[in-house]
Amino acid sequence: MYPLTKPVRLSTNRVSAHTGLHPELVRRFAALGLIECAADETGRLWFPPETVARIARIQRLRSGLSLNYTSVGLVLDLLDRIRVLEAQARGSDRRWT
Questions:
Q1: 3-class SS at 62?
Q2: Which has the closest alpha carbon to 48: 35, 61, 31, 29?
Q3: How far, in Å, CA of 49 to CA of 68, rounded?
Q4: If we measure between CA atoms, which residue out of 4, 8, 44 comes closest to residue 26?
Q5: Which residues, at least 6 apart from 1, have a Cβ–Cβ distance to it below 8 Å?
Q6: Which residue among 12, 43, 45, 57 is the one 20 to 30 A from 91 at the CA level?
Q7: Check: CATH 1.10.10.10 for 10-96?
């Protein structure tokens, strides 16, 4: 079976252009696990479209709270967990809607 369309993904240069970050910093974020990516058979990194919004969040945490990248990763993990728990609570408790 063949896919009808190409999956939406962004190259390192495209993410860099959308965020204003140097491509090497985008790669570093990926290496630190702050953003998700996949490598193709040539080693090129590809990012999901939501990467641009995640990098904006990283930049706000870094500049607004003066967090280092390790702390930013921890805060992002906690925010993701909170989002999941809130979604679960909304599903089991109608008072949240």
A1: helix
A2: 35
A3: 24
A4: 44
A5: none
A6: 57
A7: no
Q: Kindly report the pTM of this predicted structure.
A: 0.78
Residue 55: Cβ within 10 Å count: 22
Hey, where are the domains in the chain? 10-96
pLDDT tens digit sequence for 28-61:
999 999 999 999 999 999 999 999 999 999 999 9
Alpha helix stretches (DSSP H) within the chain:
12-19, 23-32, 51-65, 69-92
Q: What is the distance between the terminal CA atoms of the chain, rounded to a whole angstrom?
A: 40
Instruction: Encode pLDDT of 4-32 as tens digits.
Output: 666 689 999 999 999 999 999 999 999 99
Alpha carbon distances (Å) from 51 to 10, 25, 26, 93? 9, 13, 10, 31
